[in-house]
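Supplementary Methods S3. Input chains for the assembly prediction are listed below.
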Amino acid sequence: MIKTDVIIIGAGPTGLFAVHQLGIIGLKCEVVDNLDRPGGQCIELYPDKPIYDIPAIPECTGEGLTNGLLKQIEPFKPNFHLGQRVEEIKKENDLWILKTNKGNIFSAPNIIIAGGVGSFEPRKLSLKEAEKFEGTQIFYSVTNKALFKDKKICIFGGGDSALDWALELSKSNEITLIHRRNEFRGAIHTLNEIRKKEKEGKIIIKTPYSLKNIEGSQTMTGIEIEQEDGKIEKIKIDYILSFFGLIMKLGPIADWGLNISNKTIPVNTETFQTNKEGIFAIGDICTYPGKLKLILSGFHEAALAARACFKKARPNDTYRFEFTTASKSIHDRLGLKK
Amino acid sequence: MPKITYISHEGKKNTVEVPLGLTVMEGALQNNIQGIDADCGGSMACATCHVYVPENWFNKLEKAPDAEQDMIDMAYEPKKNSRLSCQIIVTDILDGLEVVTPIKQT
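Predicted structure tokens for the full assembly:
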């Protein structure tokens, strides 16, 4: 069991800045995130899109912002527990006990939920039959390339993941790339490579088609794809790879007894505490009158929630407000040389 | 104020007034219209405010830019007349607009 002052759920920009604000006032924290890297929506949904409303930074990308925040919290050496989701929480005496789906257990007087719109999951195929073959013949990510060797593979999607995997797997497989419109979205270099492979007969491109039907009872033997005018084509295949991006699901947070309205958690704007004592919510996941879903609002919320955590983490100490420009103790925490 | 009609996948109509300048997505959220999730809050990053626009109205809308098309690729069962409602801004020309929400958004 890992004991700490605060457990932060969510490593998006708000969660990362919460690490900073806790570090500044001398509190320790552990960060849990379902993704395999920090950055949240910034890194997963728009790593390359410019952001123009971070104070004093006229323009940066989601990736740039994440890297900046990681650099800023380096002095506090936060522990990240990535690729795992907090499944349950319970209260024992005055401490919250958290358990992740990878079996990690934490104990702390405070929890800060900076969970955005929830945890990311791959968007699945809409056909009900797809469920039956998920994990055996239908995949939403590639973990074991060897499985596909010399097989007939259909790849659905028109973005980078679909294109990159089509190229990669076309080296030793027959690939059919299926997309709902004629245009693909990807780097020019990748698109050129795809067209080259198409000419060589290594990749068959079917557009504009979408998945209509899956054939086979025990084993998937083939699929039917359909154009919008109703034209249907049958293809024999062994595997489907589907890349339609990620969706966000609130997940287990919904079962923790927190007040939740419209997928957000109401908070008190003085402390950002939820209806549960010692559980705070900041960033996109919290709501209050006038709430703006801006990164800069998340930063403000992190600052106040961090101070509110101090009371429970250090019940015998008095919190003193200090400026980073002048405080010697903050300079020590930042590891500055005198 | 322009009237916007949100039609559920079952055909149930819900007509509300949406102030000029708001998006069709915001009009739905403000009026508790079911069927539009808008997880990303309108930053064109999630495709959970996806709607179908009947042809007579679809042609009155400005063409969807590439970035919106890319996002629609990710939506649940997109069609030729698919749009993201966060990118449709309500104007006087759109008074009477009808949009159909999909069976689900994710």
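Chain B has a mean pLDDT of 94. Residues 3-100 of chain B form a domain with the Ubiquitin-like (UB roll) fold (CATH 3.10.20.30).
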